[in-house]
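FAQ

Q: What does a record look like?
A: Structure on top, sequence underneath. For example:
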């Protein structure tokens, strides 16, 4: 059965009776392979309540059904540069035109391009069901390979990103076997906030595709806090700062290569932030 509700309330009530959510379909249909879709499919593409980007004084809301192309095209503060750069890396343009931010999060691939930038933005997701709403930090939302805390009756309606004073600058880098249409071998997002004295007031760095879930490098963030905001930040990054990563061997790269690549990408992304600030 195929349903296309017009309101979030209708969609939530339908999902409470069972079914699966369909948004862009860029993960939904490939996962079926040669099998036909069975059960109830709830298409949320008509829900204007979960589309688009709105900017308020203390937060920015990105509707769950917002596409990556929309994120690229929307003027956003500089600290969103990492997210917009990641949006350009999600498949090709056709995928970016259909794929949604909620789908990327709910699919919960270890190599999901959108997750590291959302981690450094301290993003939260708003989950809606017939029983109510709740918010979960992105860092707590994805709990394993293709596993999240979303209940079967919940729709990821919105991604909420707080705004705090000095916005800072961010950057994103991804390594794959080719330039486009590639699953990451390693990827890194960083957000650096300067203080009035030209030093780093706050640092956030996240690595994806090198663990079962993307990881914040909290030890490195502590080292970066207070450092001069300028060229040379990459030299502060040591291999031990990536010790919380747990890369695997697979068809794209061996674990040792992933570790080396992540280290280089972290150094490069910090230098990108420093250059952007200058």
């Amino acid at each position: 059965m195929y349903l296309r509700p017009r309101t979030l309330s209708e969609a939530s009530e339908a999902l409470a009776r069972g079914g699966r959510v369909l948004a862009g379909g860029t993960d939904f249909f490939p996962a079926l392979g040669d099998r036909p879709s069975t059960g109830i499919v709830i298409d949320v593409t008509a829900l204007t309540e979960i589309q688009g980007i709105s900017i308020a004084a203390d937060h920015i809301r990105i509707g769950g059904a917002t596409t990556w192309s929309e994120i690229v095209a929307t003027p956003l503060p500089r600290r969103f540069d990492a997210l917009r750069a990641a949006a350009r890396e999600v498949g090709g343009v056709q995928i970016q035109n259909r794929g949604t931010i909620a789908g990327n999060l709910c699919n919960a691939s270890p190599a999901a391009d959108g997750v590291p930038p959302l981690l450094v933005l301290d993003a939260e997701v708003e989950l809606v069901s017939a029983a109510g709403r709740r918010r979960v930090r992105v860092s707590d939302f994805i709990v394993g390979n293709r596993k999240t805390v979303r209940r079967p009756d919940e729709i990821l309606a919105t991604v909420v990103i707080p705004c705090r004073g000095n916005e800072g600058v961010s950057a994103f880098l991804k390594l794959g076997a080719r330039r486009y249409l590639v699953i990451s071998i390693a990827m890194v997002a960083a957000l650096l906030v300067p203080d009035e004295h030209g030093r780093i007031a706050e640092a956030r760095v996240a690595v994806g595709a090198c663990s079962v879930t993307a990881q914040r490098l909290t030890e490195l963030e502590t080292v970066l806090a207070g450092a001069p905001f300028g060229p040379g930040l990459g030299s502060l990054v040591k291999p031990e700062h990536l010790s919380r990563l747990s890369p695997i061997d697979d068809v794209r790269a061996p674990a040792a290569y992933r570790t080396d690549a992540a280290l280089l990408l972290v150094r490069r992304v910090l230098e990108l932030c420093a250059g952007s600030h200058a």
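Q: Is there anything notable about this one?
A: Residues 169-277 form a domain with the Enolase-like; domain 1 fold (CATH 3.30.390.50).
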